[in-house]
Design goal:
With about 110 residues, the protein is mostly beta strands. It has a single domain (about 20-105), classed as Cupredoxins -  blue copper proteins (Immunoglobulin-like, Sandwich). The protein has 1 helix and 9 strands; from the N terminus they run H-E-E-E-E-E-E-E-E-E. The strands form 3 sheets. A 4-stranded mixed sheet has the order 2-1-4-7, with no helix packed on it. A 3-stranded mixed sheet has the order 3-9-8, with no helix packed on it. Strands 5-6 form a two-stranded antiparallel ribbon. Strand 5 (about 65) and strand 6 form a beta hairpin. It is elongated and about 65 Å long.
């Protein structure tokens, strides 16, 4: 067996033993339009980054109590957060608390 092949096998074994580790985390987009987060509920994996972009012509925020808090986003402004632990993250707009969303991180 060649050294290269052995290295490949070792790498494959390491990947199999560490299913939680992924080479490429994803970037997921949530849009804010007409006072609505879309999609309102989202499933992502640990390590993924979610970016919210405000398409309304009035300001909004993205707040998850104790987890993350954006600045006030004017039109076309964005806020990103990388989820490093699993769980359900309910969030809302602090300026319009009836605007709610959920990120499920697994
Ligand atoms: Cu708002």
């Amino acid at each position: 067996m060649t050294t290269t092949l052995l290295r490949s096998l070792a790498l494959a074994a390491a990947l199999l033993l560490a299913p939680g580790l992924r080479a490429h985390a994803e970037e997921i987009k949530v849009t804010i339009d007409n006072f609505t987060f879309s999609p309102a509920e989202l499933k992502v994996k640990v390590g993924d980054t979610v970016t919210w972009t405000n398409h309304d012509d009035i300001p909004h925020t993205v707040v998850s109590a104790g987890k993350f808090r954006s600045k006030t986003m004017d039109t076309d402004n964005s806020f990103s957060f990388t989820f490093i632990s699993a769980g359900d993250y309910k969030y809302f707009c602090s300026l319009h608390p009836h605007m709610t969303g959920m990120i499920k991180v697994e």
